[in-house]
Amino acid sequence: MKVHKIHKRAGASTTQITEADAPNPLWAIDFQFDSTTDGRKFKIASMVDEHTRQSVLNMVERSIPAEDLVAALEKAFALWGGPPQVLRW
């Protein structure tokens, strides 16, 4: 009898997919990188409520150290009534 190994598909996740069915329980954060016409790099951190598509955080800086991101997240959580149940990265 042959035993076949089961391979996980590339990009497949074992976690359950959460859908935003109301405002606030699910937010998504994304990081982008770009440069100005003179070649100077900058970073963008943006976070949106996946149900309403409302922006809850925007940072555009030359550098975004972890401490600054944590402080901005804490401010956003305080402003919007606490952290979401799920924060999708």
Structural commentary:
The protein is of the alpha+beta class. The chain has one domain (26-88). 16% of the residues lie in helices and 33% in strands. It contains 1 helix and 4 strands; from the N terminus they run βββαβ. The chain has one helix spanning 66-79, and strands at residues 26-35, 41-49, 55-61, 86-88. A hairpin with a 5-residue loop joins strand 1 (26-35) and strand 2. The radius of gyration is 18 Å and the shape is globular. The relative contact order is 0.21.
Oligomer: single chain
Q: Detail the poorly predicted runs.
A: none
Helix content: 10-25%
Mean pLDDT: 88
Radius of gyration: 18 Å
Strand fraction: 25-35%
**What spatial form do the alpha-carbon principal axes imply?**
globular
Count of helices?
1
Structural class: alpha+beta
Lateral strand order in the biggest sheet: 3-2-1-4
How many separate domains make up the residues?
A: 1
Strand tally is 4
